[in-house]
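Quick question about two entries, pasted in order.
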Amino acid sequence: MTTDVEGASRFYGGLFGWEAVDQGAEFGGYRMCRLGERQVAGIGPAMEPGVPPNWTTYVSVADADVATKAVTAAGGRVIVEPMDIPSSGRMALFADTGGAAFGVWEPRGFAGAELVNEPGALCWNELATRHPDAAGAFYQAVFGWQAAKQPDYSVWHLGEREIGGMLTLDANWPAETPEHWMVYFAVADADAIGARAGELGGRTLVPPTDTPVGRFTVLADPQGASFSVIALAAA
């Protein structure tokens, strides 16, 4: 969601090679981003006034209305009530108990990203929170997730599958950092992508850093939406 759909489309096209296809006036200028022939992301105008540009993590659900009831019962807040997207699905936007925003998507013709875990495509979603225990209880109640704790990180599981991560915002983080969901896109070279982002008008928020799972960097696009890229380590 951005304040400049055209500018964001140029930026991500130059960064990842995406083609942003305008869906027309019926969809409010929303664009579906393709890498080759496969859909990998979406770019559209902010749905609420005053909301800063951001990437939204969507969770697939069987019924968006049931998910809405589960969110409110668990103490979350509805930002956008369930709404139909013609011929595609039904969506809603929420905030969890810590204020981190996320969406749900009920597929009705369009299931979601058609390519993941490859350069230029989504590969991970991560919740940054100051209240990991409360977040764990919330997402377990809403989606049935389990948070497997590690020393300074947790991994969300749905059954036996790892589906995302949870990072604790401790005293090392600025007090003004809001709780949020972060998206990660896979790349072949995190340093090169960081440099390219700067050439395209973006900026680096966290410099390239090595981790056991790969080398990552946190970037912001020209409109201010933050995202991460990671060169995944070989399995």
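Here is the second entry:
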Amino acid sequence: MAETTKTAETTRTPGTAENADVVWRDRGGARRSTRAWRVRTSAVLVAAVVLAVLLVPPLVHLDEQAVDLASKLQPPSLAHPFGTDDVGRDLLLRCVYGLRVSLLVGVVAAVVATVIGTAVGALAAASGGWVDRLVMRLVDVFASVPHLLLGIFIVAMFRPGVWPVVVSVALTHWLSTARIVRAEVLSLRSRPYVDAAISGGASRLRVAVRHLLPGVLPQAGLAAVLMVPHAIWHESALSFLGLGLPSHQASLGTLVQSARGSLLAGDWWPTLFPGLFIIVPTLAIAGLAGAWRERINPRRRSELML
């Protein structure tokens, strides 16, 4: 009887292991398929956003500020796919122009913040000692203040406009990049080829330019891409509060802010479509950035495949 039970367990074990392997392979394949579908969808959405921003203003010879009180607050139709706002302006055209301004703010602010964060993080890691400790304590002090509160303080010193918002977003979003770059530089400094370059008599500047900077650029570029959606949301929040762009200038934040009265009156389209123009492009950019992160971090990619 004992021999029969042992034989049954022995014959069952390989099948169980094979079934487990099949289950894990199926799960890994399903996750890879889902990830590939998400990346393709994000790429299509980002391409559509870029084409709309670049092609619609030159091809559509209409004034997005043109007022037509006879057509105010019309629901979506063939003539106006997104409807009209409270003064009769075409909402689709306004959303495209607003997305154009918000993307400009987001991209420029992300680039400036990445440059600042890369310079600060590289300086802290390359200097070491008390310089590193002082710089990182300053980073911690800035990080302890909420981004939105600090951004409001910065834009309050200027007149409403695009560039004050860019400065506000850039000066409040470089902290995470500085920490990432510092950690990456510290990791690269311990590599054998860096020690060999230093032993060979290479100057600190040459080591930084030839060996450290190329290793930091992928992480810095990823930080910049991930910062674009955050910057768009930050600009939208400031404009919604009336502290960002002036109310007559189309941006996604000002469109949502000007549609509050229409929403209370039961007209949903002036709020829905600008909100979708905020959510969909930012999620698409974040999806592509996530794929990039998996590509430059093989360890994380292997974990996600399980």
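Reply: The first helix runs from residue 2 to 59. Confidence is low (pLDDT under 50) at residues 1-13, 300-306. Hope that helps.
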